[in-house]
Amino acid sequence: MVAPELAPRRTIGGIVAVWVVAALIAAAVGVFVGPEWRAVWLIAGLGLCLILAFGVQLWYGRSQGFTQRVGASTLGAMLAMGMISLGFGLATIVPG
Question: Would residue 85 count as lying in a domain?
Answer without folding.
Answer: yes
